[in-house]
Amino acid sequence: MSLIRVENLTKVFERPIRSDGIKGAIKDMFHRRYERKVAVDGLSFNIDQGEMVGYLGPNGAGKSTSIKMLVGILVPTSGSVLVNEIVPHKHRLDNAKHIGVVFGQKSQLWWDIPVSETLNMMRYMYRIPNDIYKRNMEMFADILGINEFMHVAVRQLSLGQRMRADLCASLLHNPAIVYLDEPTIGLDVVVKKKIREFLLEVNRTLKTTVLITTHDMSDVEKLCSRVIIVNHGKKVYDGDLVQLRNEYGTGEVLSITFEDNNPQVGFNVPGIERIEWQSDQQVTIFYDKGVINSANLLSHYMSRAKIIDFEVRPSEIEDVIQEIYGKQLGKIV
Ligand SMILES: Nc1ncnc2c1ncn2[C@@H]1O[C@H](COP(=O)(O)OP(=O)(O)OP(=O)(O)O)[C@@H](O)[C@H]1O
């Protein structure tokens, strides 16, 4: 039986339409008009215990809205959500006992008190037994390295320290599931690495299920065996990263350095999907190798301009995903 079951989940927001000027504002007071925004549109998926799933999509795709429904903060417009056999918005407290939540942009810690006090409060709020509290604190403090700022008030912590403390607080009560919304946003590579090690260890030893939204593809590559991609509120991909690469990774990337600045070489070539200029001389060309191969593409440019360097590589997972966002994927799964 899956731990998270989402069936045909839909959330429609109604936003008031505001008219311009004072006249408009007065008119709006008597005549409210609304526009409908379908943020989540018929989403279905199951997640089993112990899975680490990347929940991806471009800005505004509906990721946070669906997580808020999984957490129970938002009530679905239609469809159903079951988390650990609980309907989250109907039983928010029961649901809260089994989940941990970290929103990268917002902290759940108390600003004015030291980290140690917040963690202590968590212990009483969740009635965490002594042995579990002790074991988790030892393990978490060790991997996350939080002892060095344990007695500092939260408002004085750096972003990376605050995020590590937030992660510790959200997992102390041994939740079955943790939802992470952009947990590594704005962090340096050292802290990102610590956080990823921590999540892998927690998942390995405690079998915690992790659902993570991120725009950082290295988070996904390091942590997730499965990804769910949403766009315009709909699921457009659900599967493992290897399959994603095989199915959609028909892309290749050719980087060229020209001798002259701004060469007029033409990029309107069948197969080219996107180009990015790094400087007046350097361009990166993303193309579908099923339509044109690197040798033909290169000879196209060599016959038009002098090339002093080039490199061909397969698309990064980031490029593959960006292509999926861009193409909108004709098929919805
Ligand atoms: N409370 C709200 N009222 C009206 N519209 C909303 C509300 N919350 C979200 N939306 C709209 O729903 C859509 C989905 O938003 P959501 O925050 O779920 O996207 P997201 O995938 O999390 O984006 P991001 O990656 O930028 O965080 C957006 O168009 C957003 O403007």
From TrEMBL:
Superkingdom, taxonomy of origin: Bacteria
InterPro entries cross-referenced by the UniProt entry: AAA+_ATPase, ABC_transporter-like_ATP-bd, ABC_transporter-like_CS, ABC_transporter_ATP-binding, P-loop_NTPase
Pfam families listed in its UniProt record: ABC_tran (PF00005)
Keyword 4Fe-4S set for record: no
A GO molecular-function descriptor: ATP binding
UniProt keyword terms in alphabetical order: ATP-binding, Nucleotide-binding, Transport
Domain ABC transporter: 4-257
PROSITE patterns: ABC_TRANSPORTER_1, ABC_TRANSPORTER_2
UniProt cross-references to Gene3D superfamilies, sorted A to Z: P-loop containing nucleotide triphosphate hydrolases (3.40.50.300)
Signal peptide segment: none
PANTHER family: ABC TRANSPORTER ATP-BINDING PROTEIN, ABC-TRANSPORT PROTEIN, ATP-BINDING COMPONENT
Name of this protein: ATP-binding cassette domain-containing protein
Species this protein is from: Cohnella soli
